Amino acid sequence: MANFMSSTALGALALTETPAKFPYPEFESRIARRDFRDITKAVLPTPCMIIDVDLFEQNVSKMAVQARQSGINVRPHVKVHKSVDVARRQIAQGAIGLTCATIAEAELMSSAGLKNVLWTKQPASVNNIARAVALTRRDPTFMFVVDDPVVVEWVEQAAAAEKATCRIVVAVFANSHRQGIDNGGPALALAQKVASSSHLRFEGYMGYSGVAAHTRGWEARRRQSSADLAGLQETVALSRKCGLPVGIISGGSTGTYNIDQENGLTELQAGSYVFMDTVYFGIGGKGDDDTYSDFQGALTLLVTVDSKRHPKLAITDYGTKAMARPTDKVKGKPWLQVDTQGAEYGALLWKDADPELKLGDRVEMYCTNLDMSTNAFDRYYVARGEQIVDVWPIMGRSGAPQR
């Protein structure tokens, strides 16, 4: 981790100089008009999320190139960013569709005109089943997973009532205990039940190995992914032997993006590669077991030092409400240790010989977990250097109004 952070030291930013005459009362109206003149990092409210657009585009392009060369498709997971703007750029680089964690995310992406959305949790409530069927009627390219025959029956009844045909992917166990029917006979039986239903269409299988995604060391990760997906490969082979066509074989992650073409997957659900976080930086890459540098840290949290009353301690406005964690890292300042002080208070600590922070200083942080942190904010400020060049909405917890 220290090696990665040190390598970014030359990119550390001096963020304390504020333009003298920026019309702050006009800030939100400027954003709404997309007039970004004079809007630099120095005038942004903190804490806030910033995307380095050049690094972001580099990450998206690298994944697209790797996938093409490996002969595997990319269906990136949007739970990481929850942004139509990010998703559009992934599609433009060749992604065949999108993967979502919630029905609200799926509704957002589909309503924005983005097709081939796969929802990776089965609907087990009246609300979610009704919404999944309704979205199917509006967007026939939409798919979702099941891992239980009871849910298949519920969905079949709801789809029949609405005269819809739902596209179904069977989720199988891949060493992650949160979902997935047992491989082999049970998975095949569920797939056959889907295929024989009047208002359901069997599309294929999904097996997501969350354990392999974060296994440290590339060779160890390769072995873990192979073991975790062996059952999925067995299920696919059994299905084809029994005459059941299998289209989609979905799974994979940012950690295994250059591995899982070996494990029979036809598509990758990788998501974190667009921004990266400190959890992924620490898993090691193919040529470096210490630091994973395949994709760059394109997302940072800008924070302000707003109190400094104690030695070797600066208090910031980045607290637990903004998902601050001690495992976050400060961009370009590896000697700073992150800590928390409360809901709206964060802390940065250093040792005697280290350079100090001053009141009003601003620093950028790499968050620990993208899924958690992006969920706490409502927009990304898109930057090229110090200049803000765009603002992209993040879907809020209340729903999906940014359509």
Descriptive notes:
This protein has 403 residues and is α/β, with parallel strands linked by helices. The chain folds into two domains: 2-53 and 294-392, D-serine dehydratase-like domain (Lyase, Ornithine Decarboxylase, Chain A, domain 1); 55-277, TIM Barrel (Alpha-Beta Barrel). The protein is built from 13 helices and 17 strands. The chain has helices spanning 2-7, 27-33, 53-70, 84-92, 103-111, 126-138, 149-162, 185-195, 210-213, 218-228, 230-241, 278-281, 370-374; strands spanning 48-52, 73-74, 98-100, 117-119, 143-146, 166-171, 200-207, 248-251, 267-268, 299-310, 313-316, 329-330, 337-340, 346-349, 362-366, 379-384, 387-393. The strands form two sheets. Strands 1, 10, 11, 12, 13, 14, 15, 16 and 17 form a nine-stranded mixed sheet that branches. An eight-stranded parallel sheet has the order 2-9-8-7-6-5-4-3. The longest helix is centred in the N-terminal third of the chain and has 18 residues, at 53-70. The two termini are 38 Å apart. Mean pLDDT is 92; it is low at 1-20.
What oligomeric state best describes the polypeptide chains here?
A: single chain
**CATH architectural group of the largest domain:** Alpha-Beta Barrel
Superfamily at the CATH H level of the largest domain? Alanine racemase
Mean pLDDT: 92
How many discrete structural domains? 2
The arrangement of helices and strands along the chain is HHEHEHEHEHEHEHEHHHEEHEEEEEEHEE
Number of helices: 13
Biggest sheet record:
9 strands, mixed
**How far do the termini sit from each other?**
38 Å
Low-confidence stretches: 1-20
What structural class do helix, strand and pairing data support? alpha/beta
**Helical fraction:** 25-40%
Query: How much is the radius of gyration in Å?
Result: 23 Å
| Name of the top-level CATH class of the largest domain | Alpha Beta
Shape: globular
Total number of beta strands: 17
CATH names the topology of the largest domain as: TIM Barrel
